[in-house]
Specification:
Blueprint: H1 5-17, E1 19-20, H2 22-29, H3 33-45, E2 50-52, E3 55-57, H4 68-73, H5 76-89, E4 95-98, H6 102-110, E5 117-121, H7 124-130, E6 136-140, E7 144-145, E8 152-153, H8 155-161, E9 166-171, E10 175-176, E11 181-184, H9 187-198, E12 200-206, E13 218-222, E14 228-231, H10 239-245, E15 249-252
Parallel strand pairs: 4-5, 4-9, 5-6, 9-12, 12-14, 14-15
Antiparallel strand pairs: 1-3, 2-3, 7-8, 10-11, 11-13
Helix pairs in contact: 2-3, 5-6, 6-7, 8-9
């Protein structure tokens, strides 16, 4: 099920408010109560929000991410803008690592016209996308394939990544907390991502605005390990200060 623009606005309003009544959402969005109730029902079925007596809120779990197909539709326009900005910054004839995530999959699509790339990935979706580029060599990590998103995790993937040192690692993340830590949900995925960060000359983080202040259980890295952050909106405080202190180049993809 795709998330339409009105439903995305509803989710954005909940990110701002943390929780809201159906009446508040209807007034803010300028639609009927019936429309909001229908949207709430559909978004709840997708696991994108939680209902409670008197209102709705965003899921607050720190231990489980939402499903891959739901993440694909969530803020897809922002991810597309990020992907274009990343692709414009990636030079031809370089080596890359792309990790697991719907944002990195969007980036793979944006790289289809690049020349002379050598791409290592633990994401079978990224590999399938970039195989359509005849001028790109794709190297896939070994390990355990997660059926829910075709990500490859585990010690075998870690050992495989350790063989390489690439020009640029492009990583996605589930959450960036206000202490500057980058967090995700699966410790096995995090172990691979940490190895990716360690084996790249530059590390680029691609994260849409919904990732700021989003909690997750496992620490992957901190902002001072990142060289560039690509996002779709200017981040809220305290993130501009944290980015400046960590000497991270911020790229806001506005078109």
């Amino acid at each position: 099920m795709n998330t339409n623009p009105r439903q995305i606005l509803l989710l954005e309003e909940l990110r701002t408010r943390k929780s809201a009544t159906v009446e508040q959402l209807a007034e803010t969005l300028g639609v009927t109560l019936q429309t909001v109730r229908r949207d709430v029902q559909r978004l709840a079925e997708q696991g994108l929000l939680s209902r409670f007596h008197g209102g709705v809120r965003l899921p607050s779990s720190t231990v489980e991410n939402i499903a891959h197909n739901q993440r694909e539709s969530l803020n897809s326009a922002g991810k597309t803008r990020i992907a274009r900005a990343v692709a414009q910054a990636v030079p031809n004839h370089c080596s890359l690592i792309l990790n697991i995530g719907t944002t990195t999959e969007a980036i793979a699509k944006a790289l289809l016209r690049h020349q002379g790339l050598r791409v290592i990935t633990n994401n079978l979706n990224v590999a399938a996308i970039l195989c359509a580029n005849p001028d790109c060599e794709v190297i896939v990590a070994g390990g355990v394939v997660r059926t829910r998103d075709r990500g490859i995790v585990g010690e075998a993937a870690v050992d495989f990544i350790r063989q390489f040192r690439v020009d640029i690692a492009i990583i996605g993340i589930s959450g960036i907390e206000d202490d500057g830590t980058l967090r995700d949900f699966d410790y096995r995925e995090v172990k691979v991502a940490q190895t990716i960060v360690e084996h790249a000359r530059e590390v680029w983080l691609a994260a849409d605005h919904s990732k700021f202040n989003r909690p997750a259980m496992v620490q992957l890295a901190s902002l001072d390990q990142i060289d560039r952050l690509f996002t779709d909106e200017h981040p809220p405080e305290p993130f501009p200060t944290l980015l400046a202190n960590a000497d991270v180049q911020l790229v806001v993809a506005t078109d």
